Amino acid sequence: MATSTATLPRRSAGARARRGIAPYLYLVPAFFVMAIITFYPLAFQVWMSFHDFGQINFRVRNPVPAEFVGLDNYVRIATSQLQIPNFEFIRLVLFNLWWAFSNVVVHVVIGVFVAVLLNTKGLRFRGFYRAVFILPVVIPPIIVATVWRNMFDPNAGAVNLGLQGIGGFFGISPEHPAFNLDWLRQPNDPISWIPLPLAFFAMITANSWLGWPLNSVVATGALQSIPGELYEAAEMDGANSWQKFKAVTLPFLRPAMLPYAIYGFVITFNLFFLPYFMTQGEPFGRTEILVTQAYRLAAERRLFGVAAAFSVYLFFLLLVVTLITNRMAKATKSYAD
Protein backbone atom coordinates (compact mmCIF):
# COMPACT_ATOMS: atom_id res chain seq x y z
CA MET A 1 0.00 0.00 0.00
CA ALA A 2 2.90 2.33 0.83
CA THR A 3 4.50 1.67 -2.56
CA SER A 4 1.32 2.43 -4.50
CA THR A 5 0.76 5.64 -2.54
CA ALA A 6 4.26 6.82 -3.26
CA THR A 7 3.80 6.35 -6.98
CA LEU A 8 0.68 8.57 -7.18
CA PRO A 9 1.38 11.81 -9.04
CA ARG A 10 1.48 14.89 -6.87
CA ARG A 11 -0.63 17.90 -7.79
CA SER A 12 1.35 20.84 -8.97
CA ALA A 13 1.29 24.14 -7.08
CA GLY A 14 -0.63 25.72 -9.97
CA ALA A 15 -3.35 23.07 -9.83
CA ARG A 16 -3.73 23.51 -6.08
CA ALA A 17 -3.99 27.27 -6.52
CA ARG A 18 -6.62 26.91 -9.23
CA ARG A 19 -8.56 24.51 -7.02
CA GLY A 20 -8.47 27.03 -4.17
CA ILE A 21 -9.57 29.95 -6.37
CA ALA A 22 -12.38 28.09 -8.15
CA PRO A 23 -15.02 28.52 -5.36
CA TYR A 24 -14.47 32.28 -5.32
CA LEU A 25 -14.98 32.54 -9.06
CA TYR A 26 -18.60 31.49 -8.57
CA LEU A 27 -19.06 34.50 -6.29
CA VAL A 28 -17.81 37.00 -8.87
CA PRO A 29 -21.23 37.55 -10.56
CA ALA A 30 -22.89 38.17 -7.19
CA PHE A 31 -20.13 40.58 -6.14
CA PHE A 32 -20.44 42.36 -9.48
CA VAL A 33 -24.18 42.88 -9.03
CA MET A 34 -23.73 43.97 -5.41
CA ALA A 35 -21.03 46.41 -6.44
CA ILE A 36 -23.43 48.10 -8.87
CA ILE A 37 -26.60 48.20 -6.78
CA THR A 38 -25.15 48.46 -3.24
CA PHE A 39 -21.46 49.28 -2.84
CA TYR A 40 -21.21 52.01 -5.47
CA PRO A 41 -24.33 53.91 -4.27
CA LEU A 42 -23.05 53.77 -0.68
CA ALA A 43 -19.63 55.03 -1.65
CA PHE A 44 -21.15 57.74 -3.84
CA GLN A 45 -23.39 58.83 -0.98
CA VAL A 46 -20.42 59.20 1.36
CA TRP A 47 -18.65 61.21 -1.35
CA MET A 48 -21.72 63.43 -1.74
CA SER A 49 -21.81 64.13 1.98
CA PHE A 50 -18.53 66.05 1.68
CA HIS A 51 -19.80 68.23 -1.18
CA ASP A 52 -22.38 70.92 -1.78
CA PHE A 53 -24.33 68.63 -4.07
CA GLY A 54 -27.57 69.85 -5.62
CA GLN A 55 -29.91 68.94 -8.44
CA ILE A 56 -27.79 70.78 -10.98
CA ASN A 57 -24.88 68.43 -10.28
CA PHE A 58 -26.91 65.48 -11.59
CA ARG A 59 -27.00 66.80 -15.15
CA VAL A 60 -25.68 64.35 -17.73
CA ARG A 61 -24.90 67.03 -20.32
CA ASN A 62 -22.58 69.79 -19.19
CA PRO A 63 -22.55 68.69 -15.55
CA VAL A 64 -21.54 71.24 -12.92
CA PRO A 65 -18.82 69.94 -10.60
CA ALA A 66 -19.91 69.78 -6.97
CA GLU A 67 -18.07 72.06 -4.57
CA PHE A 68 -16.07 70.30 -1.86
CA VAL A 69 -17.14 71.55 1.58
CA GLY A 70 -15.46 68.98 3.82
CA LEU A 71 -17.28 68.43 7.11
CA ASP A 72 -19.49 71.48 6.73
CA ASN A 73 -22.64 69.42 6.05
CA TYR A 74 -22.02 67.32 9.15
CA VAL A 75 -21.38 70.37 11.33
CA ARG A 76 -24.51 72.17 10.12
CA ILE A 77 -26.62 69.11 10.90
CA ALA A 78 -25.14 68.50 14.35
CA THR A 79 -25.50 72.18 15.34
CA SER A 80 -29.04 72.47 13.85
CA GLN A 81 -27.97 75.25 11.48
CA LEU A 82 -30.00 74.05 8.49
CA GLN A 83 -32.36 76.71 7.19
CA ILE A 84 -35.47 74.54 7.42
CA PRO A 85 -38.45 74.96 9.78
CA ASN A 86 -38.58 73.18 13.14
CA PHE A 87 -35.24 71.40 12.72
CA GLU A 88 -33.46 70.44 15.94
CA PHE A 89 -31.07 67.54 15.47
CA ILE A 90 -30.76 66.49 19.13
CA ARG A 91 -34.52 66.57 19.65
CA LEU A 92 -34.96 64.55 16.46
CA VAL A 93 -32.49 61.89 17.62
CA LEU A 94 -33.99 61.61 21.10
CA PHE A 95 -37.53 61.36 19.76
CA ASN A 96 -36.48 58.72 17.21
CA LEU A 97 -34.81 56.61 19.92
CA TRP A 98 -37.81 56.87 22.23
CA TRP A 99 -40.20 56.11 19.37
CA ALA A 100 -38.36 52.88 18.52
CA PHE A 101 -37.84 51.79 22.12
CA SER A 102 -41.43 52.41 23.27
CA ASN A 103 -42.87 50.59 20.26
CA VAL A 104 -40.69 47.55 20.80
CA VAL A 105 -41.71 47.31 24.46
CA VAL A 106 -45.41 47.50 23.60
CA HIS A 107 -45.09 45.02 20.72
CA VAL A 108 -43.19 42.45 22.79
CA VAL A 109 -45.51 42.68 25.80
CA ILE A 110 -48.68 42.36 23.72
CA GLY A 111 -47.17 39.70 21.45
CA VAL A 112 -46.05 37.50 24.34
CA PHE A 113 -49.35 37.95 26.18
CA VAL A 114 -51.41 36.92 23.13
CA ALA A 115 -49.08 34.01 22.35
CA VAL A 116 -49.34 32.67 25.92
CA LEU A 117 -53.11 33.15 25.85
CA LEU A 118 -53.51 31.26 22.57
CA ASN A 119 -51.16 28.53 23.78
CA THR A 120 -53.61 27.58 26.54
CA LYS A 121 -54.60 23.93 26.44
CA GLY A 122 -58.14 23.24 25.33
CA LEU A 123 -58.66 26.60 23.63
CA ARG A 124 -61.08 26.20 20.73
CA PHE A 125 -60.51 27.77 17.27
CA ARG A 126 -56.87 28.41 18.12
CA GLY A 127 -55.75 28.15 14.50
CA PHE A 128 -58.43 30.59 13.39
CA TYR A 129 -57.31 33.19 15.94
CA ARG A 130 -53.69 32.85 14.88
CA ALA A 131 -54.66 33.32 11.23
CA VAL A 132 -56.75 36.42 11.99
CA PHE A 133 -54.23 38.32 14.09
CA ILE A 134 -51.59 38.12 11.33
CA LEU A 135 -53.82 40.02 8.88
CA PRO A 136 -52.39 43.50 9.71
CA VAL A 137 -48.98 42.38 8.46
CA VAL A 138 -50.23 41.68 4.91
CA ILE A 139 -51.93 45.07 4.46
CA PRO A 140 -49.84 47.57 2.42
CA PRO A 141 -48.23 50.17 4.72
CA ILE A 142 -49.62 53.22 2.91
CA ILE A 143 -53.15 51.86 3.38
CA VAL A 144 -52.48 51.37 7.09
CA ALA A 145 -51.24 54.96 7.45
CA THR A 146 -54.15 56.38 5.45
CA VAL A 147 -56.82 54.44 7.34
CA TRP A 148 -55.43 55.37 10.76
CA ARG A 149 -55.04 59.02 9.71
CA ASN A 150 -58.73 59.08 8.78
CA MET A 151 -59.66 57.31 12.01
CA PHE A 152 -57.99 60.10 13.99
CA ASP A 153 -59.68 62.85 11.96
CA PRO A 154 -61.02 65.46 14.44
CA ASN A 155 -64.40 65.87 12.73
CA ALA A 156 -65.41 62.53 11.25
CA GLY A 157 -62.82 60.09 12.59
CA ALA A 158 -63.88 56.80 14.15
CA VAL A 159 -61.88 57.47 17.33
CA ASN A 160 -63.64 60.73 18.22
CA LEU A 161 -67.01 59.33 17.17
CA GLY A 162 -66.41 56.31 19.39
CA LEU A 163 -65.50 58.55 22.33
CA GLN A 164 -68.65 60.60 21.73
CA GLY A 165 -70.72 57.41 21.75
CA ILE A 166 -69.18 56.30 25.05
CA GLY A 167 -69.72 59.76 26.51
CA GLY A 168 -73.33 59.79 25.36
CA PHE A 169 -73.91 56.49 27.16
CA PHE A 170 -72.95 58.24 30.41
CA GLY A 171 -74.92 61.37 29.57
CA ILE A 172 -71.95 63.56 28.55
CA SER A 173 -72.47 66.01 25.69
CA PRO A 174 -70.81 65.09 22.35
CA GLU A 175 -69.46 68.66 22.26
CA HIS A 176 -67.17 67.97 25.21
CA PRO A 177 -63.52 68.88 24.29
CA ALA A 178 -62.31 65.42 25.31
CA PHE A 179 -64.41 63.90 22.51
CA ASN A 180 -63.26 66.32 19.78
CA LEU A 181 -59.49 66.04 19.90
CA ASP A 182 -57.25 67.07 17.04
CA TRP A 183 -55.12 63.97 17.47
CA LEU A 184 -52.52 64.59 14.79
CA ARG A 185 -52.03 68.37 15.03
CA GLN A 186 -52.74 69.43 18.58
CA PRO A 187 -49.69 71.48 19.69
CA ASN A 188 -50.22 71.16 23.46
CA ASP A 189 -48.93 68.03 25.18
CA PRO A 190 -51.72 65.93 26.74
CA ILE A 191 -49.52 65.12 29.76
CA SER A 192 -47.73 68.21 31.03
CA TRP A 193 -44.73 66.38 32.49
CA ILE A 194 -44.15 64.22 29.38
CA PRO A 195 -42.86 66.23 26.39
CA LEU A 196 -44.71 64.18 23.78
CA PRO A 197 -47.50 65.47 21.52
CA LEU A 198 -50.87 63.79 21.17
CA ALA A 199 -49.86 62.69 17.67
CA PHE A 200 -47.20 60.44 19.21
CA PHE A 201 -49.85 58.44 21.08
CA ALA A 202 -51.92 58.19 17.91
CA MET A 203 -48.87 56.88 16.01
CA ILE A 204 -47.92 54.34 18.66
CA THR A 205 -51.53 53.08 18.72
CA ALA A 206 -51.49 52.54 14.97
CA ASN A 207 -48.06 50.92 14.99
CA SER A 208 -48.94 48.67 17.94
CA TRP A 209 -51.89 47.33 15.97
CA LEU A 210 -49.49 46.65 13.13
CA GLY A 211 -46.44 45.40 15.03
CA TRP A 212 -47.49 42.95 17.73
CA PRO A 213 -48.70 40.07 15.46
CA LEU A 214 -45.21 39.14 14.24
CA ASN A 215 -43.91 39.25 17.80
CA SER A 216 -46.73 36.90 18.73
CA VAL A 217 -45.77 34.52 15.91
CA VAL A 218 -42.16 34.38 17.13
CA ALA A 219 -43.28 33.90 20.73
CA THR A 220 -45.67 31.13 19.66
CA GLY A 221 -42.84 29.24 17.99
CA ALA A 222 -40.72 29.54 21.12
CA LEU A 223 -43.58 28.41 23.36
CA GLN A 224 -44.21 25.31 21.27
CA SER A 225 -40.58 24.28 21.71
CA ILE A 226 -40.85 24.13 25.52
CA PRO A 227 -41.01 20.52 26.77
CA GLY A 228 -44.21 19.80 28.68
CA GLU A 229 -42.22 17.87 31.28
CA LEU A 230 -40.82 21.14 32.61
CA TYR A 231 -44.29 22.45 33.43
CA GLU A 232 -45.18 19.11 35.05
CA ALA A 233 -42.04 19.27 37.18
CA ALA A 234 -42.84 22.83 38.21
CA GLU A 235 -46.37 21.79 39.21
CA MET A 236 -44.97 18.95 41.30
CA ASP A 237 -42.80 21.51 43.09
CA GLY A 238 -45.93 23.53 43.89
CA ALA A 239 -45.31 26.41 41.45
CA ASN A 240 -48.24 28.63 40.59
CA SER A 241 -48.96 30.08 37.14
CA TRP A 242 -46.73 33.13 37.57
CA GLN A 243 -43.85 31.07 38.95
CA LYS A 244 -44.11 28.65 36.02
CA PHE A 245 -44.12 31.55 33.58
CA LYS A 246 -41.09 33.13 35.26
CA ALA A 247 -39.06 29.95 35.75
CA VAL A 248 -39.97 27.97 32.63
CA THR A 249 -41.56 30.15 29.95
CA LEU A 250 -39.37 33.26 30.09
CA PRO A 251 -36.01 31.44 29.84
CA PHE A 252 -37.19 29.73 26.65
CA LEU A 253 -38.71 32.91 25.23
CA ARG A 254 -35.55 34.97 25.73
CA PRO A 255 -33.35 33.43 22.96
CA ALA A 256 -36.12 33.99 20.40
CA MET A 257 -37.58 37.32 21.54
CA LEU A 258 -34.43 39.35 22.22
CA PRO A 259 -32.96 39.07 18.70
CA TYR A 260 -36.39 39.78 17.27
CA ALA A 261 -36.77 42.77 19.60
CA ILE A 262 -33.52 44.20 18.25
CA TYR A 263 -34.74 43.55 14.72
CA GLY A 264 -38.01 45.28 15.60
CA PHE A 265 -36.08 48.24 17.02
CA VAL A 266 -34.18 48.66 13.75
CA ILE A 267 -37.36 48.37 11.66
CA THR A 268 -39.28 50.82 13.85
CA PHE A 269 -36.33 53.21 13.98
CA ASN A 270 -36.52 53.47 10.19
CA LEU A 271 -40.32 53.23 9.93
CA PHE A 272 -41.02 55.74 7.17
CA PHE A 273 -44.68 55.49 6.26
CA LEU A 274 -46.40 56.34 9.57
CA PRO A 275 -44.64 59.66 10.33
CA TYR A 276 -44.68 60.68 6.68
CA PHE A 277 -48.18 59.66 5.56
CA MET A 278 -50.06 59.68 8.85
CA THR A 279 -48.86 62.80 10.69
CA GLN A 280 -46.62 64.53 8.10
CA GLY A 281 -44.32 65.31 11.05
CA GLU A 282 -46.98 67.43 12.77
CA PRO A 283 -47.28 69.22 15.07
CA PHE A 284 -44.35 71.50 14.19
CA GLY A 285 -42.07 68.63 13.18
CA ARG A 286 -42.31 66.95 16.59
CA THR A 287 -43.25 63.54 15.14
CA GLU A 288 -40.57 63.68 12.46
CA ILE A 289 -37.95 60.92 12.62
CA LEU A 290 -34.51 60.76 11.06
CA VAL A 291 -35.44 58.79 7.96
CA THR A 292 -38.36 61.09 7.06
CA GLN A 293 -36.20 64.15 7.63
CA ALA A 294 -33.51 62.73 5.33
CA TYR A 295 -36.15 62.07 2.68
CA ARG A 296 -37.46 65.63 2.92
CA LEU A 297 -33.94 67.01 2.56
CA ALA A 298 -33.42 65.05 -0.64
CA ALA A 299 -36.86 64.85 -2.27
CA GLU A 300 -38.42 68.15 -1.22
CA ARG A 301 -35.50 70.55 -0.69
CA ARG A 302 -33.01 69.00 -3.14
CA LEU A 303 -30.18 69.28 -0.60
CA PHE A 304 -28.57 66.03 -1.67
CA GLY A 305 -25.21 66.62 -0.01
CA VAL A 306 -26.84 67.46 3.31
CA ALA A 307 -29.21 64.50 2.96
CA ALA A 308 -26.24 62.19 2.31
CA ALA A 309 -24.48 63.43 5.45
CA PHE A 310 -27.73 63.00 7.37
CA SER A 311 -27.95 59.39 6.19
CA VAL A 312 -24.37 58.74 7.32
CA TYR A 313 -25.30 60.04 10.76
CA LEU A 314 -28.33 57.75 10.70
CA PHE A 315 -26.23 54.71 9.78
CA PHE A 316 -23.66 55.16 12.55
CA LEU A 317 -26.28 56.03 15.16
CA LEU A 318 -28.25 52.90 14.39
CA LEU A 319 -25.04 50.82 14.29
CA VAL A 320 -23.98 52.03 17.74
CA VAL A 321 -27.44 51.48 19.24
CA THR A 322 -27.64 47.97 17.78
CA LEU A 323 -24.18 46.99 19.07
CA ILE A 324 -24.90 48.35 22.55
CA THR A 325 -28.30 46.66 22.70
CA ASN A 326 -26.86 43.38 21.45
CA ARG A 327 -24.09 43.47 24.04
CA MET A 328 -26.37 44.39 26.94
CA ALA A 329 -29.07 41.87 26.05
CA LYS A 330 -26.61 39.17 24.90
CA ALA A 331 -29.07 38.51 22.09
CA THR A 332 -26.65 36.42 20.05
CA LYS A 333 -25.65 34.27 23.00
CA SER A 334 -26.91 30.71 22.70
CA TYR A 335 -29.24 29.23 25.27
CA ALA A 336 -26.70 26.54 26.09
CA ASP A 337 -24.16 29.19 27.14
Entry keywords:
337 residues, mainly alpha, disordered N terminus, two-stranded antiparallel sheet, 65% helix
How does this model look, in words?
This protein is mostly helical and 337 residues long. Among the domains are: 13-38, no CATH class; 87-291, Orthogonal Bundle (MetI-like fold). 65% of the residues lie in helices and 1% in strands. It is built from 15 helices and 2 strands. The chain has helices at 2-6, 13-25, 28-49, 72-78, 89-118, 126-132, 135-138, 141-151, 158-169, 198-224, 228-236, 241-269, 273-279, 290-300, 304-329; strands at 51-52, 67-68. It has a two-stranded antiparallel sheet with strand order 1-2. Helix 3 packs across helix 15 (304-329) and helix 11 (228-236) crosses helix 12. The longest helix has 30 residues, at 89-118. Mean pLDDT is 85; it is low at 1-8.
